[in-house]
Write a structure and sequence with these properties.
about 130 residues, mainly alpha, two-stranded antiparallel sheet, 5 helices, about 5% strand
């Protein structure tokens, strides 16, 4: 069960992101809800080992409700709650997928930096030979 503010901050972050690329190699690949970006209230500590994630109603949504679009606003909010439920149920899977993607990105960036460093040394060597 997710209870810590640290865990909920991760869920908060994931809710605001399109996770299609992150989860492309998992059983959640192709699930439309993972692509949905949902904006919520930030996690808040309520006790030493417990926190809550708030669902916020923005001014735009309130205005739409006042204009008679309650059904549409509720449908959009339902999708956010469904994404929250998915992330809570599959927290470990999303965590592993995100960690794997970060590691792959780090390796790619590392090789680019290494290639740039090699090119830089070659350029400096060429310049010192020609001087």
């Amino acid at each position: 069960m997710l209870v810590s503010a640290c865990e909920l901050r991760r869920v908060f972050k994931w809710c605001s992101e399109d996770l299609s690329a992150t989860l492309s190699e998992t059983s959640l690949a192709g699930d439309a809800i993972v692509a949905r970006r949902c904006f919520l209230g930030q996690p808040v500590d309520v006790a030493e080992e417990s926190a809550v994630l708030r669902i916020a109603l923005g001014a735009e949504a309130l205005g739409r409700i006042c204009q008679g679009e309650l059904t549409e606003v509720l449908a959009e909010d339902r999708l956010c709650v469904e994404k929250l439920a998915l992330l809570a149920e599959r927290y470990e899977l999303v965590d592993l997928a995100e960690s794997g993607q970060a590691a792959r990105t780090s390796v790619k960036l590392g090789s680019v930096v290494q290639d740039d460093l090699v090119d830089s040394v070659k350029t400096q060597s060429s310049e010192s030979v020609s001087n």
